[in-house]
Design goal:
The protein has 282 residues and is mainly α. The protein has 14 helices and no strands.
Length: 282
């Protein structure tokens, strides 16, 4: 039995490692090909394989051209500004809503939770016609304020992460504070909100990355590209109906993902802690 069990364990571990290697290969192949393309000249990119390494790793003209011609700095400032405002509004609204839904049992509580769950199942593109008509009637199209207002809607995923985290916090904290004379606002802001830091950091990272990489809404609602340019729309400067400069686009992709990569490396511990603590009910 022992030999048979050890053989089964060996087979399971073998297939597990093979699966992980294949999944890593599939995930890393586009990134590796993008890195290779960023260091190739226009002629080399057109004549060689897309997964072939470049002949000269010191070729940096693609990075210089993207930085000087695409308006990346303007787009980066706009994207970061929008990201900070939207993340602050969205996470604060989400934490308040999660606090009300978890701590207060009222008629319609389950209905609201179910409505958010149903909203998460509806594709975002299916509602774009209605949303665009509303934005147009309110004269918020081609307006940075309108774009921020639309993107600041509370994220359903963030609400569920915060809800699960609230369920792990004992209600005795609330009761003790109220007995001492603290109001509901004081309980939330002074006691519970500091304890939500891991979950809030997770929600901020998830929401912030989504806003930073957002292209569809930025391209649709910020129509004046000279006045309102984001990081994602700057990448499409080199795309055209007859000719596209993919080697410069790949260089721009590497420049764009660098800030997000640095943020993830710095806060990866908080991200993992917030997701695991919010996903497991103690």
């Amino acid at each position: 039995m022992g030999v048979e069990r050890s053989f089964k364990d060996y087979v399971c571990k073998f297939f597990k490692h093979v699966t992980l290697i294949l999944a890593s290969f599939v995930c890393l192949l586009p990134l590796v090909s993008c890195v290779f393309a960023a260091f190739k000249t226009k002629e080399e990119f057109g004549l060689t394989s897309k997964v072939a390494p470049p002949q000269n790793w010191g070729y940096l003209e693609n990075f210089k051209n993207f930085w000087n011609e695409s308006g990346f700095l303007q787009g980066f400032i706009t994207s970061v500004t929008v990201m900070i405002i939207v993340v602050c509004i969205s996470v604060m609204l989400g934490s308040m809503l999660a606090y009300v839904l978890d701590r207060f049992k009222f008629r319609g509580n389950a209905l609201i939770r179910g409505a958010f769950y149903m909203a998460s199942l509806i594709p975002g593109l299916a509602m774009q016609v209605t949303i665009y008509k509303m934005m147009a009637q309110l004269h918020l199209v081609n307006s940075l304020f309108g774009y921020v207002l639309m993107m600041a809607g509370t994220d359903v995923i963030s609400i569920y992460i915060l809800l699960q985290y609230f369920e792990n916090l004992p209600t005795a904290l609330d009761e003790s504070a109220i007995i001492e004379g603290c109001t509901y606002y004081g309980v939330f802001f002074k006691i519970l909100l500091p304890l939500l830091r891991p979950a809030m950091v997770t929600c901020m990272i998830l929401k912030g990355v989504g806003i930073y990489n957002e292209y569809y809404n930025a391209n649709l609602y910020l129509q004046d590209k000279k006045l309102y340019k984001t990081v994602s729309t700057a990448l499409y400067t080199y795309l055209g109906p007859t000719k596209s400069q993919y080697e410069i686009i790949c260089a721009g992709v590497l420049i764009c993902i660098l800030p997000i990569l640095i943020i993830f490396i710095l806060f990866q511990k908080q991200i993992y802690n917030g997701m695991t603590n919010g996903a497991v009910k103690g």
